[in-house]
Amino acid sequence: MKSVQTLYGNSRLFRVMPIVTPLLDGLHRVFRAPVVLAGATILTTGLALPLGTLLHGQLQIDLLESIVPSAMTAGVARDLWQQFLGQAIGLERSFTTSVIGFAAVLTNFMTLFSGGGRELVMVTVVAFYLSIWTLLSGGMIDRYARNRPTRSAGFFAACGLYGSRLLRLSLIAGLAYSVLFSLIHGWLFGGLYEWMTRNVTADRPLFAIEVAVYLVFGLLLMTVSLVFDYARVRAVVEDRRSMIGALLAGGRFIRRRVGVCVGLYAANGLVLLLVLALSEFMAPPTETAGRSMWITFFISQTYLVVRLASKLLFYATETAYFQSQLAHASYVAAPAPVWPESPSAEALRRLG
After folding, report:
1. Which of 225, 252, 328, 333 has the most CB atoms lying inside 10 A of its own CB?
2. Local structure of residue 183 (DSSP, 8 states)
């Protein structure tokens, strides 16, 4: 099987910039597995549609009871929106002004870095979605590692084989993120930040200190995410049963190749940020009808597919880079599951 470096030639670009090779290789693997991307899109859309339908019904009831429903349907009436949120409960509280355009992206990032919470119903939905995604991620990584079609039997066999292991790894990751956001986040933005700014009154030093604290927390967050990413890859590619062992192996791999691992993660993050930035231009307008409504729907679905592809690119590029360092391109420890032959095939073989 030819590598991307062989396909594109041994140019000086690949020798000077080792990040380019796994990045292009991962992109190539994502494009060669359109069914995986289609499945991820169906999963995300399938979970969002029931919630959207339920929210749509609740909003219709609430808006019809309003004396000026047209103000909300014709555009963004912020006063009425705030009045609506004041009496909203459950899923309705997720219908904030931040759902429009790039504000949704900024809100998610600020909620993440500030350690803020969400409504219980949204937390439940996200936890369910992440659990299903974790179960399927074993088949996704297995498909990218083999870099060839595994068919539905092979894909779901890999999901069943690695799903429970990756769920255990996710529980460890959840514990690590809990410590990061509950203890370390509180110490950085509470005790340390207050101590560093105790006698500071000028705005510029205050802003510099705040940026520095955010950068430190972001670096810690990236480190934890990176270690668990490669632990996930090693658990699947090497067919590891111990997730503690996979976690330690992932850490060793990053420690010995820290420059390329961090650079590749940053390149993937830049691709994701560029895709998120496109949401500002692809965001649906506040007033749609007729043909424009279907155009808006098509643009929104296209954005969803591209965003999921950029998320899958993390799996593909990290798998490609790991295999280029510690395994050849077609190596996966577990054999490819093959659907057994029909009993009639054995009967025909005896007759022959």
Report:
1. 225
2. I
